[in-house]
Specification:
The structure is a single chain. The chain is built from ten helices and ten strands. The strands form three sheets. It has a four-stranded mixed beta sheet with strand order 1-5-7-8, sandwiched between helices. Strands 4-3-2-6 form a four-stranded mixed beta sheet. A hairpin with a 2-residue loop joins β3 and β4. The protein is flat, with a radius of gyration of 22 Å. InterPro entries: Cas1, Cas1_I-E, CRISPR-assoc_Cas1, CRISPR-assoc_Cas1_C, CRISPR-assoc_Cas1_ECOLI, CRISPR-assoc_Cas1_N. Its EC number is 3.1.-.-.
């Protein structure tokens, strides 16, 4: 019997993840499909985007997308993520871009083993201290070193911009209760969390399985976002606070949007997550097969290996009921 609907693309027709547009942001448009292309229609016309060239489609404010377009993205191993303006807030996502659960399994294996978790956490701190030896520091020492780095970063940007700085002080339930710089920091960090969350779910990792942070549904989001705050959100917040803005939240979101508009932070985020969770290959590169594997479903066996799925094991003679 013929299965209704458009048949999925053959593996040979799909572009490798490394050859795709990693993340494409659209807003204020109607998204449909035309053959094997995604179409985005707005008041300026119609844009055709080959579905096989897209990794993740970020759907910003004012977008509507048809069932056929979502089906086409799924058939080509892509995903859709619903986000705020220019991708600075995460709302929901569709399927992962990853075709296998290899990244998720690696994350779970590392976070559930004390020594492996410590190794990943230490690697996260090492990213923040390039050229420094952190191999023999305890978690308490690493936290102290990081705290000193963040405090120093705040002081440097306060001196650069002339913004008075005392300490981080905010109420999650009362955004306007803080002073200008604390409002700007909260708004900027929220933008970064949205970007990082979108990347994590697109890669097929778990937002809640953190290595430094723990116990929260976005623990891994906070882990990864902390790698970029000193470079992106802290200087943005001080710049906005120094500008005399009368709408701290909106101005901060727009400034973060402009700062990450070239997509470089998305590429770095992908690279850092995969480097932290997957072992580098002998060449020093990360294997791309977690995106490219198809039909890799197996059954777990207690001998530590997988056995083939899609067969009835009652037909095997040594099955004992």
């Amino acid at each position: 019997m013929k299965i209704p609907g458009v048949p999925p693309a053959e593996l040979a027709d799909l572009a490798r993840a490394e050859d795709r547009i990693s993340f494409l942001y659209l807003e204020r448009s109607v998204i449909h499909r035309d053959s094997n292309a995604i179409t985005a229609t707005d008041d300026q016309g119609v844009l055709h985007i080959p579905a096989a060239s897209v990794g993740v489609l970020l759907l910003g404010p004012g977008t509507s997308i048809t069932h056929q377009a979502i089906a086409l993205l799924a058939d080509h191993g892509a995903t859709a993520v619903w986000v705020g303006e220019r991708g600075v807030r995460y709302y929901a996502h569709g399927r992962s871009l990853a075709a296998s659960s290899r990244l998720l399994i690696a994350q779970a294996a590392k976070v559930s083993h004390r020594d492996r978790r410590f190794a990943v956490a230490r690697a996260m701190y090492a990213i923040r201290f390039p050229g420094e030896d952190t191999a023999n520091l305890t978690m308490q020492q690493l936290r102290g070193k990081e705290g000193a780095r963040v405090r120093r970063t705040y002081r440097e940007h306060a001196a650069r911009t002339g913004v008075a700085w005392s300490h981080r002080d905010y109420d999650r339930m009362d955004f306007t209760g803080g002073d200008a710089i604390n409002q700007a920091l909260s708004a900027a960090h929220a933008c970064l969390y949205g970007i990082v969350h979108a990347v994590i779910v697109a890669l097929g990792a778990a937002p809640g399985l953190g290595f430094v942070h723990t116990g929260h549904e976005r623990a891994f989001v906070y882990d990864i976002a902390d790698l970029y705050k000193a470079e992106i959100t802290i200087p943005v917040a001080f710049d906005v606070a120094a500008s005399g803005s009368t709408d701290i939240g909106a101005d901060t979101r727009r400034t973060v949007r402009d700062r990450v508009h070239d997509g470089a932070i998305l590429a770095r985020c992908v690279r850092d997550i995969r480097t932290l969770l997957l072992q580098p290959q002998p060449s020093g590169m990360i294997d791309d097969s977690d995106f490219e594997d198809r039909d890799s479903l197996g059954l777990w066996d207690d001998n530590g290996f997988e056995v083939a799925a899609g067969r009835n094991y009652a037909d095997i003679g040594d099955v004992d009921f």
